[in-house]
């Protein structure tokens, strides 16, 4: 159950952070209105709370692992929402980032260097 919780929280964090940044981008770059910016600020604040619910107590580890999720999630957001056409290198880079995130967050505690 912990693995499912970790994955769900990372996905929620990605939607909140990437969505919030996208909303602010829309407000500033596409002149979509102040309510887009406000919604973006609220979503970005929500991201901080979601990240804090990760079971791992180490802020640095959680945020480092989330970085890989952010890389892949940002490209996925671009594909789905903005019609972005990724290159093979975008896919390879995302896979490497996700592999790094998985190694960081799921490595057995016994193998970590203190």
TrEMBL record:
Q: Which InterPro entries match?
A: EmrE-like (IPR037185), UPF0060 (IPR003844)
Q: Which UniProt keywords apply?
A: Cell membrane, Membrane, Transmembrane, Transmembrane helix
Where are its TM segments located? 7-28, 34-53, 60-79, 91-110
Superkingdom assignment: Bacteria
Q: How does it sit in the membrane?
A: Multi-pass membrane protein
Q: Name one GO cellular component term.
A: plasma membrane
Pfam families recorded for this chain?
A: UPF0060 (PF02694)
Q: What is its main location?
A: membrane
**Similarity comment:** Belongs to the UPF0060 family.
Protein's name according to its UniProt entry: Small multidrug resistance family-3 protein
């Amino acid at each position: 159950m912990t693995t499912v919780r970790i994955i769900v929280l990372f996905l929620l964090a990605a939607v909140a952070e990437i969505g919030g940044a996208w909303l602010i981008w829309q407000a500033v770059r596409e002149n979509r209105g102040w309510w887009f910016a406000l919604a973006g600020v609220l979503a970005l604040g929500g991201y901080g709370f979601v990240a804090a619910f990760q079971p791992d107590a180490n802020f640095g580890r959680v945020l480092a692992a989330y970085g890989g999720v952010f890389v892949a999630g940002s490209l996925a957001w671009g594909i789905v929402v903005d019609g972005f056409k990724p290159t093979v290198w975008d896919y390879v880079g995302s896979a490497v980032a996700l592999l790094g995130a998985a190694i960081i967050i799921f490595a057995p505690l016994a193998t970590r260097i203190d």
